[in-house]
Specification:
It is a single chain. With 180 residues, this protein is α+β, with helices and mostly antiparallel strands. The protein has 7 helices and 8 strands, in the order H-H-E-H-H-E-H-H-H-E-E-E-E-E-E. Strands 1, 2, 3, 4, 5, 6, 7 and 8 form an 8-stranded mixed beta sheet that branches.
Length: 180
């Protein structure tokens, strides 16, 4: 049985997450390094998948995670970092390309797992770091003076969302691995 105070905390956390994740990154000026690093994470009382489902700006990502059969893996206990592209990020991909990615489970899984790294990663770090994704390839994350926090060529929001099994950082474009 849940109490009204725990429901209130859950509702407040959901409202904070939705507000933090719904602001378009392109509308934000690059904050100073100190401002960005001082931004506190928002705590969400559920999993990475729960936070994505609760965020309308991540509905495309959520549907693709389900289509790839990755919802259980991203809901499992552990400590993952997810760089989550918004609906606007997916809209930048030509429809034919997005259809090809979504139409092939292996390709879709490769693209989605390229957005996930084990452990805690902070793209606001002052030195760009090389990271190995769950997909097996590398990406680069760190603070750039021109754009703020970045993952490869994508801009990340300064606000992280901490979930029960990891951290979510919103990014403004879809990260694509190398296909051979």
């Amino acid at each position: 049985m849940t109490t009204s105070s725990s429901l209130s905390r859950h509702s407040l956390a959901l409202a904070l997450v939705t507000a933090a994740l719904s602001a378009p990154l392109s509308a934000l000026a690059a904050p100073s390094f100190a401002q960005c690093r001082a931004t506190q994470a928002v705590d969400f009382p559920g999993t990475i998948v729960d936070a994505a489902v609760a965020t309308p700006a991540l509905s495309t990502l959520t549907s693709l995670v389900v289509a790839a059969g990755l919802a259980d893996a991203l809901s499992a206990p552990g400590d993952l970092t997810v760089f989550a592209p918004t609906n606007d990020a997916f809209a930048k991909i030509p429809a034919g390309v997005l259809g090809a990615i979504g139409g092939d489970t292996a390709t879709l899984t490769a693209v989605l797992t390229y957005h996930v790294v084990p452990g805690k990663v902070d793209p606001r770090h002052p030195v760009t770091r090389k990271l190995t994704t769950l997909q097996g390839q590398t990406l680069f994350a760190g603070y750039s003076r021109g754009t703020g926090p970045a993952v490869n060529q994508s801009v990340a929001d300064c606000t992280a969302v901490r979930t029960t099994n990891g951290t979510v950082w919103i990014v403004d474009s879809v990260l694509l691995p190398q296909f051979r």
